[in-house]
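Lesson 9: reading folded outputs for more than one chain in a single document. The general rule is that every protein is listed as its sequence immediately followed by its C-alpha cells, and records are never interleaved. Here is the first one.
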Amino acid sequence: MGAASPEQEALSSAEGRRSWNVPTWVRFVYVFTLLYLFLVGVKALESGIKSFGSDFTDTLFERVSNPLAGLFVGILATVLVQSSSVSTSTIVGLVGAGTLSIPFAVPMIMGANIGTTVTNTLASLGFLRRSAEFKRAFAGATMHDFFNILAVALFLPLELATKFLSKSAEWLADLLGANTSLQFENPDSPIKSAVKAPVSWFESLFERITEDETAMGIALLILGLTLIFLALAFITKNMRLVMAGRIERSMNAVLSRGGGIPAIIIGLLMTVAVQSSSITTSVLVPMIAAGVLTLENGFPVTLGANVGTTVTALLASLAADSPAALVIALTHTLFNVAGIAVFYPIPAIRRIPLYLAQKLASVAEVRKSAVLVYVVGGFIVVPLLGILILN
C-alpha cells in the first residue's frame, strides 16, 4: 500500500503523543458528557419548536409541500452547516416535535446524504496544482457523490410510491419497543428523564425573566442548535485526535487484502468512532491521490461511512418524545444499507459510480473551471433554484 511520508509519520507521531497525554478513561467521560449535551440540545430544539405552537410550524413547513423541494432543502442545509450529523439530528428533532411529517422528512434525509459529500470533494481541491494526483483525488471524492445521487434517484421514487423504507423502519421501531401506532408521548425512559431535566430547568429560569412564549421558543432553539453544533464538533475533534494514524493504519491493513465486506465494516466503525463520515471519506482522498489506494478498494470504505454516519440520528432519536423520531432515524439507516445491497454485490453495477466519477475527473483535469461549476452549481445553485421553483 506504500510507505507513509516522513511528514505524515511526524504528524501521526505528534498527534499520537497528544492523544495519549490524557488518560483513556478521562476521554471516555468527556465523550459521554458531550453525547449527553448533544441529546439535551436535541430536546431543547424540540421543546423550542413546540413552544411556537402549531400555527407557526404549519406556516414554516407548508412551503415544503413537494418531496423534491424537501430533497433540495436537505442538500442545501447540509452544505451550509458542513455536517450531515447536524442536519439529520435537526430533522429528527423536528419529526420528534411533530413539526415535520415522515413523508417529507425522508427526502430531506436523502438530501443530507448528498449534501455531506461536498466536504471530501472540497478536500480533493488541495491537489489542484498536481494534475495526475488531482484527477485521482477528484475521482476518489466524487465516487461518494455519484453513489448517493444514484441511490436517491433509485429509492426516492420507490419510497414515494410504496413507502417501503419508512414502513420497514416503522416495523423495526415497533420491534424495538417504540409503539408507533400511539399518538401520545411515550413514557419517559431514564435517558429521556435525564435529558429533559436541564431543559425544564432552563424553561423555569426563563419564565422568571419573561412569560413571552415566542421569546422562550427562540431561546430554546438557539440553545438546542448551539449544543448540537458544539457537542458534535468537540466529539469529532476529540475522537479524531485519539484515532489519528489508526484510521490510516487500519485501512491499509484491510485494504491491502483487497477490501470488500471488511472494508465496509472498517468505514462503518471508523465513522462511528469519529462521529463524522467526512473525516473517514476525506482520509481516502490523499491515499487515492498518491496512488497507494485504488478507487475499487476505497469505494467500500465510503459505503461503510455512509451507514456509520446514521448513528448520530439514532442517538438523537433517544431524546425525542415521539416514536416517529426513531422511525425517521431508522429510515436513514435502512436507506444507506439498501444502497449497499443494490450497488455493491454485482461488479457491473458497482462500477457505475466509479465510472461516472472517473469521467468527471477527466473533464476536471483538463478544465479546472468544471470543478467550480460542479461544486457551486450542483451543491448550491441547483438546490436553491429547486426550492424556489418547486415551492
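And here is the second record, again sequence then C-alpha cells.
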Amino acid sequence: MQADTPRPLCIGLTGGIGSGKSEAADEFSRLGAAVIDTDLIARQLVEPGQPALAEIIKSFGKDVLDAGGRLDRARMKQRIFADVQQRRQLESILHPRIRKQVLREAAQAQAPYCLLVIPLLVETRADYSLDRVLLIDCPEALQRQRIRTRDAMSEVDIDAALRAQASRAERQAVAHDIILNDAGLPALTVAVKRLHRQYEELAIAHLRPHPS
C-alpha cells in the first residue's frame, strides 16, 4: 500500500471457541466484506516445507507431526491447552508471521471494509490496527454444547480449551459491538446484516478526506 493510500476500515471479529465466529464471518463475506481469517493463515503457515513448521518441530519435537509429516493439530492443541509456556512458545512462532500476512492482505483488500477474524484478539489486539471490535458471544453452557457436538471433545479437554482463552467478560470489555449468538443461524444472519450496513456507512466516513 502506498504511503498516501488510506487503509480500509478494519473490524476485528472475535469470540470464544464454539461461539459461531465462522458462521458470522461467512455471512459477512457473502455480503461483500473482505474477510481475513487468522486461523486460516495459521494453517497455511504450518504446511509442510514452511519455515514456521520447521521452527515448531525444532521447538516441540517431531512427535507433533502426523504419519504424513503434517502438523497434528489435535495433538498440538492438547499440548498448548495443558501448558501455558508451550502455548506462548507456539504463539511467538506464529503470531508475527500471521500479523505480517494479515497486514499484507488488508492492504490489498478490494472491499468497503476488512473483517479480521482473530480468536485471540484480547491477547493480541495490540498487534493490529483496528477501528472496531465485534464479539460473537454466547452463554458458556451453549458454547460447551456446541464444542461437544462439533469436536467430540471430552469435558476435561473443553475445560482446558476454555481456560486457555480470554474469559467471556474480558472479550465483552473490549468489544464495540456484540452479537449474542444464542438463537440459531437465521437470527445470526439478521444481526450480521444489520452490522454490515453500519460498517459500510462507517467505511465511507473512514475513507472521506478530513479537512486540514
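What the second record shows: The chain has a mean pLDDT of 90.
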